[in-house]
Specification:
By secondary structure, this protein is an alpha+beta fold. The protein has a domain at 76-137. It has five helices and eight strands; from the N terminus they run E-E-H-H-H-E-E-E-E-H-E-E-H. A two-stranded antiparallel ribbon has the order 1-2. The protein has a two-stranded antiparallel ribbon with strand order 3-6. Strands 4-5 form a two-stranded antiparallel ribbon. Helix 2 (27-36) crosses helix 3 (38-46). The protein starts with a strand and ends in an 11-residue tail after the last helix.
Length: 137
Amino acid sequence: MEGKEVPGGEFYYPGEAILAQTRIKNWEQIAARASQDMEKFWEEEARELEWYGPWSKVLDDSRKPFYKWFLNARVNIVHNALDRHQATYRKNKLAFVWVGENNEVRTYSYFALNREVCQFANVLRAMGIKKGDRITI
């Protein structure tokens, strides 16, 4: 990766091999599609996720600027980010790269990241954290 110095640190541009695997190939085309019909665009994108309950309305803009998206829908971000990949070929794909301040690098597959998340969830449970509690890290 080639680094470029920017205020506050370095910025890394992905290589051609990484770009070839991305879902978004043409940012300008996607931005144009989104600007033509924003609600339709986000509804189509939302269908890529797994939902526990469907939405009754994509966007409620009746109380601007207090917009509400996907009214009455139920979704679990951890399920979509990790859980649903555990039974697929993706479980062994790279999910996360961590780079520490001393340039230590750790890489995690979806499977390994899920294991770390579960271990941390167990630590929180052991500390008395339960469903509905709010925590900050």
